[in-house]
Batch of 2 targets.
Target 1
Amino acid sequence: MPGFAETFLNLAIMQAALPYLLQGLWTTLLLVALVVPLGIAGGLAVALLYRSPRRRVRWPLILYVDFFRAFPPLVLLIFLYAGLPFAGLEIGAFTAVAIGFFLNTSAYYGEVLRAGIESVPRGQMEAARSTGLSAGRAMAWVILPQAVRNVLPDLVGNTLEVVKLTSLASVVALPELLFAARQAQSLTYNPSPIVLAAVIYFVLLWPFVRLLSRLEHRMLAAR
Amino acid sequence: MSQWDRFAETFFNGAVMARYLPDIVAGFFVTVWLAVLVFLAGLALGLALALVRSLRVRPLNALIVLYVDLFRALPPLVIIVLLYFAMPNAGWSPSGFVATWLALTLVLSAFAEEIFWAGILAVPKGQWEAARSTGLGFAATLGWVVLPQAVRVTIPPLTNRTIAITKGTALGSVVAVSEILASAQTAVSFSFNPSPLMLGAAAYIVLFFPVVLFGRWVETRFAWKR
């Protein structure tokens, strides 16, 4: 039986798989660059619309947020990818991933930003308006900066979750990092490519986990 | 046949649904069982790690921080794939159920440790000093004075995190755990009809929607404390 290092940390295999994995990493980063801004924009729309005084506007928004928080993203993805073609909609892996992740992440970002906006005292809006700022400008320049600061740990944490979420795209054969690693593993009959992918994820995300930890502790110390 | 009829016939096919309902129900119980096991083991392990950390032994704390960072940085699916597809090379072949359970437990314990630890830190120092000065030992102070106050602040974030991670049980479908999603997908490929997928989606909503509503209630219930 081969040794542990030869099996899990086989450098020759890792070297051969590296270009393939880096290509996968590139796709992962492209996905993040697409899903994070879309999710934040959708979440912002949810949070702003939620300020409406009308119940029949707020009610569907809560339903939207809670529905997609209750629904596992993988189930959503499979439904879009494998269910919709039965309705004649062949949307392909990339579109399914983009739509599925948008629905999921916009619900989470929406909830975080809503809590942030609600954490800013009402007097801030009144003061901003009384200086002559329009409602839109008061929101953009006075309320939102404070709201974002108040929920910064949650925003960073949520973004971290989105990056990790992209690994689900491997299930619908989108060639991102995890998919590339699985392919390399099945070609070489050796698990080293998966270990290498895990190392890449960790190296990529560790700084953000540290940052998040600091933000959380600073938030706590400030109370 | 109108367009709507054809749509209903495809996505809400009564015959197909009736035929595969027992499979989905069986998958439902696998999901519930897996989620409960992840919940219990993850929170217990997370609390244990936070308690060890409160002893403030330097090398031990460094290890705990590394453990927490590792499982907060790795995507759960990557851990599941590592356990299920790589571990057999080391002579240990966990079933898909065990691989999914272990991966989600490790991830939940890492997040739970951070939350419990933050909760313990949030209890003012004076509480420790006052409790110790009444003659309580370290363990008694932690168990009777600090933890009850710490748990209060930790409940809302802990609830949300637990929901997010137990939803990950659907990832078990990738490693052949016959939970809801896998049962539905198998049924779709046998019947060549997407109705079982609709049933599966309904099962997830039945299971997790009340939990999300409970989480919302918990958040408002404990809000004054923050």
Note: The radius of gyration of chain A is 21 Å.
Target 2
Amino acid sequence: MNTSVIVTGFGVTAPNGLGTRDYWSATLAGRSGIDRVSRFDAGRYPSRLAGEVSGFAAADHLPSRLLPQTDHMTRLALVAAELALADANVSPGDADSYGMGVVTASSAGGFEFGQRELQNLWRHGSRHVSAYQSFAWFYAVNTGQISIRHGMRGPSGVVVTDQAGGLDTVAQARRLIRKGTDLVLAGGVDGSICPWGWVAQMAGGRLSRCDDPGRAYLPFDARAAGHVPGEGGAILVLEDAEAAARRGAGPGYGEIAGYGTAFDPRPGSGGAPALPRAMELAVRDAGLSPGDIDVVFADGAAVPALDRIEADAITAMFGAGRVPVTVPKTMTGRLYAGGAALDLATALLCLRDGVIPPTINVTPEAAYGLDLVTRRPRTAPVRTALIVARGEGGFNSAMVVRRPDDE
Amino acid sequence: MSQESTATPRMTAEDLLGILRTCAGVADDIVLDDKALDTDFGSLGYDSIALLEVTANLERTFHVDLDDDAIKASDTPRDVISMINSR
């Protein structure tokens, strides 16, 4: 019998809400955080919308010591981690610092910081480059900063699998806990809304060029034409259920019941997409069958060929229209390494409250055969949720979470 | 690299404390005032990278060349003020 791993807390920094309460009320109300890019002048770029965490003043949340050495997305990650620990009622200083680890996902690192320092280098010379450039741009920086700030010296790491990363870190945390670590912070907070990050994302060819926030990101819609990028994500506290009980923590939000991951075949090789296999592995790992799954949080690429692959995977597993499907990231944009971590937190809130948040703006394309929850939230008895995430480059991951009282 | 002025301004305590605040911030339990001038940088919460950042800023502001290890964690702000002003 494997150790049961539960989520005892999480912190959210999302474009439509800073902190879990604001995020969840906005998400149930269908309130979007997607708008014109404000962080730089995107007027002459082909894509001009983003999901930005608005109203975030880092100095209100972090000690001044951390400001000169952190990129914007690291500041958001530090806030998410602090909120997560508070939510779980954990003070790392009280416990064995080697019994607590940190695993975060990253797609790019601190691009805004890096761009500024490269500009300093070429405009002014090497003496003008910040010494903090030595780590602030680095993709592992969030793990390091969270670990240092909270004195968490247990097994740690970083996972770089684009949008799948949020789930892959939680799977890695579960492995570490099963090997004997009591508590691991996992998840992802990401974002590179700056010219350097923007052109890199444009090169991927999947950014929407629509200027209307209500029509720019439409997964599973006949009008789907790419996604809107965003920033933010979630950090979660994962614990050995028995260790959590020993310290008097409650049952938590839910159990990480199953996980599966599979890599796509080489493009052009004619091999079948690996997404169905990742989903099957996750459900099997949870000891469940598809009929036991109450809701699917879809990846929702909003690229027609990718929507088709995901819809086919869902209907093959469950039957057409047989399971509610939702894409709340229509309200935030795709958050890269932060996206699936936020979906996981959202799925746990859905389990807690028995309400499935909506997919906004989308008119479902009937040919996909999905029961997409649109317009308003749907009340439903939800005991289990399947979260699906794909990263550019062939990553496919899926995770099953189960209510704490559902054995 | 161009310099706007070749005259070397004298550095005041307030100059240095301002540079510390800008380049490296202030730790939660530290008050960065005149009393801190005789406390070593390590005790003020500044690590080697913070001191490297401060060193680069001093070079740019006061038009001096300093080695990367010119400021050590065992030095105090007053040590740095006299080092810069003796050049």
Note: Residues 26 and 215 of chain A are 19 Å apart (CA to CA).
